[in-house]
Design brief:
single chain, alpha/beta, TIM Barrel, ten-stranded parallel β-sheet, three-stranded antiparallel β-sheet, 13 helices, globular
């Protein structure tokens, strides 16, 4: 059975949408802004600080074939649950209090039995029930998916939820959809105060109009916003440093920053030209530097030493490991650790209502700050009567 997540605004910045929320999730209280880590990244052999605040994210793509197997094949269920149990144990290593299981579908045309399987999984492995996301939702709209069809799917999900254990329901909002306002108003009618925003592998600053529409609709509503599949910036950009657009999204009102689970968008022609090794290079992460909000392309030890912080538990050598898998895991954990440390700094700055002044000192996001100021300014403008209908 669904219940509201208890959300309370403790502090609000005056020039940005940064805020400190106290969110009560079935008795577990968290303070935002906060970082969320993909639990599959956690590796006991790569220790990160244990006194930082992190939430956990489990992201699973369930295509029609996979979902059908899970519902009808006991062996597949056991294998699936064993994977989830491993992730839960990883979360316990870092004392992660709240876990979100985010299912992604390729179609909303699934049976009641399949929806119930998703709900049963969230009942045991998630602190929220979360409406499933839709892979490449914007593309489905272009192919004919209409708002009523999508809302009927969500209605069915909420109806079937009534027979399950009581905990908060998180509404899923594919941020690329053209009917975000209608979707949020539907969720508000069901008293939903927590939302998972799926950015579909795009940067927050590339969807500024949609974020603005979302915030206008939620104006004067205390809501918890979690972001998933948000890109850090352009992965193909050759610059040695790119702006940390994902971290900047706290200024747009994002409370919890998750991971991007989607592969980079590489045109087929470019993919053929690059070849396998270059594509791996594109997929490699960059290192977040909280002092200037830049993501650095690390190719050698000297470059890394210049930005290597004294407050990390991750060995410098691990960030340069010859194994692509170990290097990416170490870099992912490092970024989660450093962004989490930065959220603690932000909390103090928010209390002082000095976020804009603080962010202006971050070299690589100065230009992007204008977009934050614009959204904040737009929210103070009178709203047309039609928005209240």
């Amino acid at each position: 059975m669904a219940k509201e997540a208890k959300v309370k605004v403790l502090h609000q910045d005056k020039e940005t949408l940064c805020k400190i929320l106290e969110v009560d999730v079935i008795g577990k209280k968290i303070l935002t802004p906060i970082k969320t880590i993909n639990l599959s990244y956690i590796n006991p052999q790569i220790p990160i600080k244990t006194n930082i605040n992190l939430l956990g994210e489990i992201y699973k793509t369930l295509d029609k074939k996979k979902l059908n197997k899970l519902v009808n094949d006991t062996d597949e269920q056991i294998k699936f649950n064993n994977e989830l149990n491993t992730l839960i144990r990883k979360a316990q290593l870092l004392n992660i209090p709240v876990i979100m299981f985010i299912p992604t579908l390729e179609t909303i045309k699934i049976s009641d039995k399949e929806i119930e399987f998703i709900l049963a999984t969230q009942e045991y492995y998630s602190d929220f029930y979360i409406v499933p996301s839709i892979k490449r939702a914007g593309k489905l709209v272009k192919e004919g998916l209409e708002i009523d069809e999508y809302l009927n799917f969500i209605k069915k999900f909420i109806e079937l939820l009534e027979s399950f254990k009581e905990k908060p329901l998180m509404g899923l909002i594919p941020i690329t959809l053209p009917f975000i306002g209608q979707l949020v108003k539907f969720y508000l009618k069901h008293h939903i105060t927590a939302y998972c925003l799926d950015f579909d592998g795009r940067a927050s600053t590339s969807l500024i109009q949609n974020i603005s529409q979302l915030q206008r609709t939620l104006k004067n509503i205390d809501a918890f916003l979690h972001a998933t599949n948000m890109n850090i910036g352009r992965p193909l950009k050759r610059a040695p440093v790119i702006p940390a657009k994902d971290v900047l999204s706290y200024g747009f009102g994002i409370d919890s920053l998750g991971e991007n689970h989607l592969p980079p968008r590489i045109p087929e022609e470019t993919r053929r030209r690059l070849g396998g090794s270059r594509i791996e290079e594109v997929k490699n992460l960059r290192i977040f530097n909280k002092e200037d909000y830049g993501y650095y392309k690390i190719q050698d030890k000297n470059t890394l030493r210049k930005i290597y912080p004294p407050d990390t538990n991750i060995n410098l050598e691990l960030l340069l490991d010859k194994s692509t898998h170990r290097r990416r895991t170490a870099q992912s954990m490092f970024n989660a650790e450093q962004i989490s440390i930065e959220t603690n700094r932000l909390k103090e700055v928010i209390k002082e209502k000095e976020v804009a002044k603080y962010l202006k000192k971050k070299e690589y996001i100065k230009e992007e700050l204008k977009k934050i100021a614009k959204i904040k300014k737009d929210l103070t403008k009178p709203r047309p009567l039609t928005e209240y209908l």
